[in-house]
Every structure is written in C-alpha cells, then in structure tokens.
From TrEMBL:
TM region(s), chain numbering: 6-22
Keywords: Membrane, Signal, Transmembrane, Transmembrane helix
Protein name: Phosphate ABC transporter substrate-binding protein
Residue intervals of the PBP domain: 39-274
Organism in which the protein naturally occurs: Flavobacterium gawalongense
Cross-referenced InterPro entries: PBP_domain, Phosphate_ABC_transporter
The organism's place on the tree of life at top rank: Bacteria
Length: 307
C-alpha cells in the first residue's frame, strides 16, 4: 500500500517553498541587476546637465530606466537618510558623521569619484571687469564692504555652491545683505544677464552645456577669471586649468551608492567611471578622473598614394 499519510505534509512543504519563491521573484533586488531594471537617483542640481547626458546614454545601451531627481545638496543627502533613494550624486564626499549613520544601519556606502567640475563666477557682459579676486568674494560673504562687488547671487540657500563658499569664508550662513538666492542655476544666469554689477555663482556645467532656451542668456554673461588666495595670476574654469589645478574653485564629483546589493547603483557608477562615461565628461568640458585612451591607426601609405 502507498503511504498517503505523508501526502498532506508534503503538500504543506511544497506550498511554503512556492510562497517564498514567489516573494523572492517579486523582490526589487531580483528584478534589478547592474544593467537592468529601474531606479531613482537624486542629484545635486548644480550637476544636472552632465548627469542627464550620462543617463541618456546608459539607458540607450541597457534595459534600464533611471528617474533623475534634481534637488539641492541638502535635499539630496537627506534623501539617502530618509531612504527616499539609495543612490545620490554629490559634489562632495560623505562626512564622518554621515558615514556613522549608515554604519549604525549596517550599510557601507560604495563611493565612486568620477569627475572634477568647478564653481564659476559670472557677470553681465556690460561689466568691464572680467577678473574677480577670491579674497574679495570671501570678504563680501563675511559681511564686509567690497567696492568691486555689488551683490552675489546663488541658486539655492541649501545648494552645494552655498555650502562650498560658506566653507571658504568660514561662515555658517550667508549674510542677509547683498547676497541673494533663487531656486536654480538657470535663474541665476538669467538674472545676472539682465542686471549689471551682480556676480552669479553657478556650477560650470550650466555654462558649458546650457539648454537651447538658455543659450541667449549664457551668451549675455562673462565667465570671470578668478585670482586665487595665493599668487597674482587669475584663471578661468577651463578644462585645462582645472586639470593643472590652477583654477582655485575646483571640486570632485561622487556617486554615492547605498543600495547594499548589486543593482543599478553599481552599474551606473561603473558606467560613469568607465570609458564611455569618461568620454562624455571629457566632451562636456569637465575633467574626467581618468583620461580615455585613443586608438591611433598609422598607415604607411594613404589611399591616394601611388603604388
């Protein structure tokens, strides 16, 4: 005789196995790989143009869909803590205090440096001065009167440019007098192009890769040469000056991946730090972390040479 007593137990075990298998198949981690699936990435708004280019090429090559969410630096960092996103792109690394928060959650962020950009100063084309001394900008931010500066215009009170300049000036908050802020870099560029005497503070990528609708405003401003805190020479935020460390307001860019598994965060970070991603950065006018190689074919004879 067959032992039917064991059959219900066998069915019970089979149901449990199938239940967990179905739940595993529904897990985002299994749907998503390093080159497939969907993910949201918060990005420091000052870096949006170059990251949009990277996402467009990445999506064209792989079965991936990335939702890019431009926010201020403060909001971008907070998105990681609030678990609104596990991937963020910043113009600074995480601080020791921030890393401790992830350590308490037993998460080790994977941090990838992929480029160097710069904070740029711009002025109206009608202004005769095309050079600004960094010490004068710092003094103005400290609340001191500077004859050469009528006012400073930032994109957002919580932006990376404000945090960067506050750090240089040794202050915790921008002064109430003479310093203004909007919401975006585009608004800063537009305002400066229409107002004499104001100096705008923007991410250089917004000048090298403006949207078509913004081109006329970018053409109406000067990118100022900056005289550093040491030496008498001044330098524009060109790719070459950033590479030679001559421009005093350069900063590295980071992909912060807190996914904790092999997902699109890992794939996208590898892409932007890889050959194709670095070529996109090079073409944008920013400085790639590693210069992409070039294949050069040397021919002994041209096609038109007589044999």
């Amino acid at each position: 005789m067959k032992n039917y007593a064991k059959l219900p137990y066998f069915i019970f075990i089979s149901v449990i196995v199938m239940f967990f298998a179905c739940n595993q198949s529904k897990s985002p981690k299994n749907k998503e790989t390093i080159l497939k699936g969907s993910a949201s990435i918060y990005v420091d708004e000052t870096l949006t143009p170059i990251i949009e280019d990277q996402v467009a090429v990445f999506e064209s090559k792989y079965e991936a869909k990335i939702k890019l969410i431009p926010k201020s630096e403060s909001e971008t960092v907070n998105s990681l803590f609030k678990e609104e996103s596990a991937i963020a792109i910043l113009s600074r690394n995480l601080t020791m205090e921030e890393l401790k928060i992830f350590e308490q959650r037993k998460i080790t962020p994977k941090i990838t440096v992929f480029a160097t950009d710069a904070v740029a100063f711009i002025s109206n084309k009608n202004n005769n001065d095309t050079i600004v001394a960094l010490k004068d900008v710092i003094s103005f931010m400290q609340g001191k009167s500077v004859a050469s500066i009528k006012g400073l215009v930032f994109d957002n009170p919580n932006s990376s440019t404000v945090r960067y300049m506050n750090s240089l000036a040794g202050i915790k908050a921008i002064p109430e007098k003479g310093v203004f802020s909007f919401k975006t870099n585009d608004e800063v560029i537009k305002y400066v192009s229409e107002n004499d005497g104001m100096i705008g503070v923007v991410g250089v990528n917004w000048l090298s890769q403006p949207l078509p609708a913004m081109q006329k405003y970018v053409d109406s401003v000067n990118t100022l040469s900056v005289k550093g805190l040491t030496g008498d020479n001044s330098f524009t935020p060109s790719q070459n000056n950033i590479a030679e460390r001559k421009y005093p307001l350069a900063r590295d860019l980071y992909v912060i991946n807190c996914q904790g598994y092999s997902g699109l965060g890992m794939g996208f970070a590898s892409f932007v730090a890889g050959d194709i991603g670095q070529r996109i950065i090079l073409k944008s006018g920013l400085l790639p972390i590693r210069i992409p190689g070039r294949n050069i074919t040397i021919r002994n004879k041209s096609g038109n040479d007589k044999k």
